[in-house]
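#struct-pred

JT: dropping the chains for the assembly here, can someone run the whole complex?
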Amino acid sequence: MSRRSGVLEFAVLGLLRESPMHGYELRKRLNTSLGFFRAFSYGSLYPCLKELLRQGWLVEEQSGAAEESRPALTGRRARIVYRLTAEGKERFEELLDQTGPDAWEDEHFGVRFAFFGQTSRDVRMRVLEGRRSRLEERLATMRASLARTREKVDAYTLELQRHGMESVEREVRWLNELIESEREGRGEGRDHSGSENPEVGVEQNDTDRNTDIT
Amino acid sequence: MSRRSGVLEFAVLGLLRESPMHGYELRKRLNTSLGFFRAFSYGSLYPCLKELLRQGWLVEEQSGAAEESRPALTGRRARIVYRLTAEGKERFEELLDQTGPDAWEDEHFGVRFAFFGQTSRDVRMRVLEGRRSRLEERLATMRASLARTREKVDAYTLELQRHGMESVEREVRWLNELIESEREGRGEGRDHSGSENPEVGVEQNDTDRNTDIT
DNA sequence: GTTAGCATGTAAGGAGTTACATGATTTT
DNA sequence: AAAATCATGTAACTCCTTACATGCTAAC
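RK: done, full complex below.
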């Protein structure tokens, strides 16, 4: 009944924390900026926004003409702009700090990583290491299964298993680099600037076009 | 109402084509042999089996003692063994030949590939090439999006996008090799033996233990 | 003047999970 | 004797999609 999706809620709060937006733009950002991994439809986005409003984490802003310097854009359509409230900000911060086992599961890890810029370093470490050990666990099961089923399955199935394992191994190596990089306190040229710095966010890009993943 | 899941139905028919099995064992095979990519629960498996029975594609075999040489295993529990009917076999063949755009989407491609051993070569080619062009389409969108959003998103988001793109590029390379290999008619040592050869299937492995992916 | 994109929503349904209910048997 | 594994099943719920409904504006 309540449409409290976890992933979607988290992503919406996170994106709105950077800057207020209307639904249509929000969806585009969900499908691109956030690492491409998911495609949400309006059928889930709008009900989610409604629920977040109900919780008091968002407020509507019937933005028609104000604060935009160009008057050409004002006449589009209703365009309900959503802004994060103080409570919403608090809620998001609360979610950011959660390091339950959910955080490193497939469905959640991507979106958690996408907001690492807002996440404290120790939480980042816990999530990265949690993810890694989760994947290593999975690798162990895969290897055991491979050793047992080899010869019994056909070549295509075997190739699929091999490729699947290689993908997981690759992600583990990626995580190793990231964890190493976190430990060094951002050594190699990258500046993630710790857990502060909201200025890296997006600043009113009305010029976006065709950003859908089909 | 009808619980006709597509992926699950296809996988169950395919596994039962190799040899009759009971539900519990079926689930283990779904989570391991089939490339690890999905974990189905009993809550979906049993209703699916029920539906397949209703369609006449499966029959129950109250297998208690027969055909097993060791009498030690007979006393376990009811153990309803399912066997594919002629209609079920036909249905599976029908599904194997489908090359609609669904076949190369994320949810379906894995399971389609897992049964390539039973699939005719031209269908294999269509599915592999369909998958590849689907991914290349996605890559184009990603690249366009990256070019537009660079500088506007923070370093973590960018890293996530970069890693996501690399994963897709890697799968494209994998597909290229597979397509090449199909064109050569299985050149390099691998013998997938065309579209015939049901003997590669699994033959009654009662010794399986701990094959779950947690 | 019609296609494509912008913009917001709802209702119905699909595909799966979790939690529960039950009970045998094997291993520790 | 307890814990794990084997084995089957159901009800309620979650989360998301598709299809529909509506209407405006920009570009071709």
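JT: nice. Residues 22-25, 42-43, 46-47, 50, 76-80, 209-210 of chain A lie near DNA strand C (CB under 10 Å from a C1'). The helical segments of chain A are 7-18, 23-31, 42-54, 86-97, 106-114, 121-149, 155-183.
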